[in-house]
């Protein structure tokens, strides 16, 4: 019953559709992204300051056995690759080189990871928190959004991959909503 309730709570924002799954911490006018043919440089997903639960990622990994630490590291590599691939697949034309005066940098940072768990009676989804900065090619901040990706799965790696895949879908929806120049 609790897993059904957890799934319903996670799905509710998708069903309601009244507001996007991302939130602006700094917003610019949509005309910024309206010039035809704009391009973006997608930086690799940043996770240098990743917190896991209430500790740094280094502390979290140090508390694990070598097999668990290796499994976590591989899950992270796979999840980050999935995040990048989903964005590139959704907007292949946006992420190609273009003129500097019509190009932007997308800097996504994975800031927090709550691994969650899957047990017989009680389940908790994995939740990944993200901050995405949009910058000029000169590095000047333009816009910033924050959002969470969450997934419930039997395995910790499945929760991580699902959460990052959901995060990429939310970032894709932001691009679709705001970047008129990214539409085919």
Number of strands: 9
- Find the CATH topology: Double Stranded RNA Binding Domain
On the 0 to 100 scale, the average pLDDT is 91
CATH class: Alpha Beta
How would a crystallographer describe the biggest sheet?
A: 7 strands, mixed
Shape: elongated
- What is the helix content? 25-40%
CATH architecture: 2-Layer Sandwich
Low-confidence runs of at least 5 consecutive residues:
1-16
Task: Quickly count the helices.
Answer: 4
Number of domains: 1
CA(first)-CA(last) distance = 43 Å
* Rg (C-alpha, Å): 17 Å
Order of helices and strands: HEEEEHHEEEEEH
Strand content: 25-35%
Overall SS class:
alpha+beta
What does this 3D model show about the protein?
There is one protein chain. With 184 residues, the protein is of the alpha+beta class. It has one domain (2-8, 19-182): 2-Layer Sandwich (Double Stranded RNA Binding Domain). It contains four helices and nine strands. Strands 1, 2, 3, 4, 5, 8 and 9 form a seven-stranded mixed sheet that branches. The chain has a two-stranded antiparallel sheet with strand order 6-7. β6 and β7 (123-124) form a beta hairpin. It is elongated and about 50 Å long.
């Amino acid at each position: 019953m609790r897993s059904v309730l957890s799934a319903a709570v996670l799905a509710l924002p998708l069903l309601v559709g009244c507001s996007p799954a991302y939130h602006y911490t700094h917003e610019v006018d949509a005309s910024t992204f309206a010039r035809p043919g704009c391009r973006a440089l997608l930086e690799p997903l940043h996770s240098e300051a990743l917190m896991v639960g209430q500790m740094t990622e280094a502390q979290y990994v140090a508390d694990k056995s070598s097999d668990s630490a290796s499994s976590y590291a591989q899950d992270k590599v796979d999840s980050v690759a999935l995040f990048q691939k989903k964005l590139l697949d959704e907007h292949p034309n946006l992420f190609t080189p273009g003129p500097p005066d019509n190009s932007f940098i997308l800097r996504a940072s994975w800031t927090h990871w709550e691994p969650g768990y899957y047990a017989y009676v009680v389940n908790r989804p994995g939740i990944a928190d993200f901050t995405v900065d949009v910058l000029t090619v000169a590095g000047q901040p333009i816009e910033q959004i924050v959002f969470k990706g969450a997934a419930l799965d039997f395995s910790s790696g499945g929760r991580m991959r699902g959460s990052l895949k959901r995060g990429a879908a939310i970032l894709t929806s932001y691009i679709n909503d705001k970047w008129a120049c990214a539409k085919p």
